[in-house]
Amino acid sequence: MTSDETPDDSARPEDATPVKNVGFAYFFSRRIVAPLARVVYRPRIEGRHHVPRQGPVIFASNHLSFIDSFAIPMSAPRQVHFLAKASYFDGPGLRGRISREFFTALGASPVERGAGQAALDALDAQERMLKAGKAIALYPEGTRSLDGRLYKGRTGVAFLALQTGAPVVPVGLAGTNEAMPVGAKFPRLHPRIAVRFGEPLDLSHHGPATSGKARRLATDEIMAAIHELSGQELAGTYNEVPAHNPIERIRQVFPHERR
Which GO molecular function, any one, fits this protein according to its record (predicted)? Predict the structure, then answer.
């Protein structure tokens, strides 16, 4: 593995933040899966020394592939928590149990995806994690980029940062869309990926979380930092999921503030 790490960054991720009662799945993912992935993909990991080792922190990343949620936890110098679809945790039989154990070991928590109350519940869950001093990972774009461009960010990440005072560490991913393109069932073995951690952002100067202007300006600062790390072409618009019903189509015609 090549990186720009200083000597104190050479410690394994699990050495930085002890985790209690994580069980065999966590041991397996950290001690076996992670080293194997590093051998196969030879990831270039940059800027790990920027990541605070203790206290709440938000990793805000671009989103290119399903494996982004594996690349960040496996590269960060501390345990990272993120929300994942509830279906990964409630599947039946042995396959469901393996999926549940694996995602739990990676630091994932189940959440029902959607708008309205589901979105508010997700924000509440992430706020509780931050207040407990944990590190969480979020994708401000909301969903994966299908064309490789960087889309405008929703304001949920900024809301959490302003609400909790947690610093935001921007993350730029590259090559994950080649390692596992959208629609692929399994990762490819040869593409090389890069994970770049930027300097922590203190967004408090933008104002309180209750201010829409503060949330928007803070979000734009986050996306500018991600863009500098990822080098992607800017889309200049939101990455909208195709509308499935008339209400969703109306919302896309008249965009509202994204949280």
Answer: 1-acylglycerol-3-phosphate O-acyltransferase activity
